[in-house]
Amino acid sequence: MIVSKFLVNWILVCKFAHTYFSMTTQQLINQIKIKKSFLCVGLDVDLNKIPKHLFAFEDPIFEFNKAIIDATHDLAVSYKPNTAFYEAYGIKGWISLQKTINYINENYPEIFTIADAKRGDIGNTSSMYAKAFFEDLNFDSVTVAPYMGKDSVEPFLAFQNKHTILLALTSNEGAFDFQTLNVEGTSGEAERSGAKELYKQVLETSKTWKNSGNLMYVIGATKAEYLTEIRKIIPDSFLLVPGVGAQGGSLSEVCKYGMNANVGLLINSSRAIIYASSGNDFAEKAREEALKMQQEMRKILFQV
Amino acid sequence: MIVSKFLVNWILVCKFAHTYFSMTTQQLINQIKIKKSFLCVGLDVDLNKIPKHLFAFEDPIFEFNKAIIDATHDLAVSYKPNTAFYEAYGIKGWISLQKTINYINENYPEIFTIADAKRGDIGNTSSMYAKAFFEDLNFDSVTVAPYMGKDSVEPFLAFQNKHTILLALTSNEGAFDFQTLNVEGTSGEAERSGAKELYKQVLETSKTWKNSGNLMYVIGATKAEYLTEIRKIIPDSFLLVPGVGAQGGSLSEVCKYGMNANVGLLINSSRAIIYASSGNDFAEKAREEALKMQQEMRKILFQV
């Protein structure tokens, strides 16, 4: 009896959690308006970079995240843990990730959460990844690589009010190895519209996938000049933009070419915020950096 | 004193483990010759598909894997856990994965282990993924997606006697969305050799990366006729070939067009072997299926 009661409770908790912690695009837009911010803070937590006093805690990674989140939650609309930084610490790391997402969902349910995981595999495998990030960990969104095509992405898109952030044009040097090569289409849309860069083909093809309304895209800030062309293909989609700050991208340039009527941008900053100080004042300094970003954003929003 | 002795022991264990559980390509080739097999068994463990009696154990996934491995280790040269199937069960799943790889490394160190994880991200992030799979979990190899280019793959290649299995031409339908589009090169090699399909460009470009000797490639068996062209670009590399069996690829066709002097193939079979029976005899039936594959492989090896 006790066991079955426990089970029923557990199922109810899960159901409640699933209903509560999904987020529509409109709710995200509302948050951006309320906070006057479209800042996403990347939680790429490296044990070699966090303040030494945190090692007194059982879970230094979680303590670090908790302090950063508490100090910046009113300035950011999104947090983006990068799964690599948790997986590198094995089971302990996975526990830190679980505690971090639970902490956000329980304390700041208005936050749009992103699992920066860059997954993608054949259909039945992508379904398992979707289950991992949308159900087990209960993130609002996950980043996905496009190389394996339609049936590797659609299992993610099948989740209502969960968002799939497809890699299109990334912020690193290697983006020029394949993403910007001109491709000749082999059929349909591509043939009609002639040769184009691979990342544009990814944008166009992805629009034809089932539930493509659940798509957002990764577009690196280091290539802001590409945004005009990108907006012709996907005028309404949200773009997750890494590479502002540490990687050299400019916030004003990105906004100039990439913003739409609903803002349509999430600007990620990781290292510049979370490692603003390596001392006891790390959370306070992180807030200062986040505030600078939010004030720039506020200014831009009022100009629009 | 006890603590520091424990620490020293732990460091020694880790060092020993790292030295012991890496594998050169030559060692893999030797194993193929000894076992007369180039079979890789995919451990894509779905709780909905495993025999019900395993739920009596604390960790049904690990018990399933252990039984499959014990029943097939002399017929297979490689095991390939697909990380999605573990991540879908959260921390418990990650523990099952850790126990599975430890079990293989401790009991069958001659086995070539593959983390089918399809990772890939900007440089500092890929370094963390490499650390996760090569150091923390101690796999011999990991599958990596090429979309983000050189600096997303080279951090994996930096590990000596660890292998990076790059997605080139996958076995799913979505492979035709982008991988087979013709690309026009923008510089160097590509310009000289004219337009080619994206997956061929991936093969050619990847050969120029640092430590490219540590590369292997995923080439789907459902596209065996492409192998002649592929072998012109990468004659010596090992190919991990999914899609034989359940996805319709033919073993003899793959060998006819893809085998090289060192065999150069790892043929993966997942569902056809591990779910050969859903009853108490699942391990026995898995062995029967693995034996069928190994006998076919033995026949092909003796023909060559």
Please write out the topology.
The structure is a homodimer of 304-residue chains.
Chain A: H1 2-20, H2 25-35, E1 39-43, H3 60-72, E2 78-81, H4 84-87, H5 90-107, E3 112-119, H6 123-136, E4 141-144, H7 150-157, E5 163-169, H8 175-178, E6 182-184, H9 188-193, E7 196-197, H10 198-206, E8 215-219, H11 227-233, E9 239-241, H12 251-258, E10 265-269, H13 271-274, H14 282-303
Parallel strand pairs in A: 1-2, 1-10, 2-3, 3-4, 4-5, 5-8, 8-9, 9-10
Antiparallel strand pairs in A: 6-7
Helix pairs in contact in A: 3-5, 3-14, 6-7
Question: How would you characterize this protein structure?
Answer:
Two copies of one chain form a homodimer. In chain A, helix 3 runs parallel beside helix 5 and helix 3 packs parallel to helix 14. By secondary structure, chain A is of the alpha/beta class. Chain A is built from 14 helices and ten strands.
TL;DR of this structure?
Chain A has 304 residues and is α/β, with parallel strands linked by helices.
Instruction: Enumerate the spans of chain A where pLDDT stays under 50 for 5 or more consecutive residues.
Output: 1-20
What letter string, H or E per element, gives the SSE order of chain A? HHEHEHHEHEHEHEHEHEHEHEHH
Please give the alpha-carbon distance between the first and last residues of chain A: 60 Å
Helix content of chain A: 40-55%
Counting copies of identical and different chains, the oligomeric state is homodimer
The count of helical stretches of chain A stands at 14
The secondary structure category of chain A is alpha/beta
Q: What is the C-alpha radius of gyration of chain A, as a whole number of Å?
A: 19 Å
Shape of chain A: globular
